[in-house]
Inverse folding.
């Protein structure tokens, strides 16, 4: 289950590269990632670098030099808790593990690491000219910020501490990736006011299931302001095609200190931005 959640996170980071919000609308990238992933190997921990490289043959030709690459790192054990429980993650972990409620984040991380004996491995997509942006996104899941990766040409190392983007595009990409890590509505909306891009906003979005037994989801996500309603319509249509009964609500902010709300309901077909 943990590795499956991490696969979803990888899909997210692949989609937040330049042009970040535009690529979110392009289904090609998500489908290309899945060609690199063997789900059974992922869950059984039996994937290997050689098998990963071989999957590059499945990728669409002429897609800017994408490859299936094998990533290895020490996964931060508290990431999944933060994504699942948001602001309440520390209290919930402490209660479930029998820790003192005043325990620090670092102490929790140290205790959870005691039960992790091996590195985390995954085969995923690497795109030409976007490698630093992707590696930075991946490294945020690493406890020490270090990612070892092999695209069939020998193992290389990316160290988050040594990543200092200089181009305007890479700086903005890093900004969006960092802001998307917010685990509360207050923090997410605050980050939106600090965006350097004028046609972008950060949105705290909640997907509320209208079917019994399905968990709700909350996340901080980037959207282009000028196409926000169009994006919501597209996401609603996708939910309807998947027979998914959901209500999706977002509260957004941009660098003009403007608050924008958007929502859709896949049952009623309502889409609204105000």
């Amino acid at each position: 289950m943990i590795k499956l959640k991490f696969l979803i996170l990888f899909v997210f980071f692949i989609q937040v590269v330049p042009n970040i919000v535009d690529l979110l609308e392009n289904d090609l990238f998500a489908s290309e990632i899945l060609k690199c992933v063997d789900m059974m190997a992922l869950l059984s921990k039996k994937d290997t670098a050689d098998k990963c490289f071989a999957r590059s043959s499945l990728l669409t030709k002429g897609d800017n030099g994408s490859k299936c690459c094998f990533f290895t790192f020490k996964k931060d054990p508290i990431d999944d808790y933060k994504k699942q429980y948001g602001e309440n993650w520390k209290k919930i972990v402490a209660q479930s593990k029998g820790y003192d409620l005043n325990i620090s984040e670092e102490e929790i991380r140290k205790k959870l690491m005691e039960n992790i004996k091996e590195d985390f491995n995954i085969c995923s997509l690497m795109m030409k000219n976007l490698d630093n942006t992707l590696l930075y996104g991946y490294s945020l899941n690493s406890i020490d910020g270090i990612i070892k990766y092999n695209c069939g040409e020998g193992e290389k190392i990316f160290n988050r501490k040594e990543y200092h983007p200089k181009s305007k595009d890479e700086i903005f990409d890093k900004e969006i990736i960092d802001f998307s890590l917010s685990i509360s509505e207050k923090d997410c909306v605050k980050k939106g006011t600090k965006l350097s891009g004028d046609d972008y906003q950060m949105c705290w979005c909640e997907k509320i299931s209208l079917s019994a037994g399905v968990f709700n989801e909350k996340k901080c996500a980037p959207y282009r302001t000028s196409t926000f309603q169009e994006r919501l319509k597209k996401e609603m249509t996708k939910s309807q095609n998947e027979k998914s009964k959901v209500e999706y609500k977002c509260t957004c902010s941009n660098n003009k200190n403007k608050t924008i709300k958007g929502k859709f309901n896949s049952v009623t077909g309502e889409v609204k931005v105000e």
In short: DSSP finds twelve helices and nine strands in the chain. The first strand starts at residue 67 and ends at 73. Residues 1-18 have pLDDT under 50 and may be disordered.
